[in-house]
Amino acid sequence: MITAATIIHYIEDMERALAFYRAVGLEATSESPGWSTFNVLPGLELALHGGKASTSGDPHPFDAMTTTFSMSVDDLEPYCERVTAAGGEVQRILEPREHIPVRMALVNDPDGNGFQINQYVG
User: Is it true that domain 5-52+68-120 has CATH number 3.30.450.40?
Assistant: First the structure.
């Protein structure tokens, strides 16, 4: 039985990463120079691990079909503005299409970790 899930982002600057994830609405549950965590939802944790796992310039995880962090929001545009104001980058927004009633923003945090933000539009 699975009781929790953790998504790990490898980062270069812990203070910058902590500030970014706080600015986009997450609350830290532990902090240290090499490992910090956020409780995203019951059973789902985001962990920041000091030290980059790969070089910059890799494709967005969405494009590479690798594991990525995904959050759902009520209104996509204000949240994308929040990401940018916190030092992240909005790569692109994908509009709903057949059988996918979701607007998706593909974004990067300040260390280049890609994740997506979804808005269900029915």
Answer: no
Q: What is the pLDDT of residues 63-116, one digit of tens each?
A: 776 667 888 899 999 999 999 999 999 999 999 988 889 999 999 999 999 999
Whole-prediction pTM value?
Answer: 0.74
Residue 67 · residue 46 · CB < 8 Å: no
Tokens (6 digits) for 93: 């927004």
Phi–psi pair at 23, nearest 5 degrees: -65, -30
Domain ranges in the chain are 5-52+68-120
Q: Which two tokens stand for residue 13?
A: 């600057």
DSSP notation for the chain:
----EEEEEEES-HHHHHHHHHHTT--EEE--SSEEEEEEETTEEEEEEES-SS-TTPPPHHHHT---EEEE-S-HHHHHHHHHHTT-EEEEEEPPBTTB-EEEEEEE-TT--EEEEEEE--
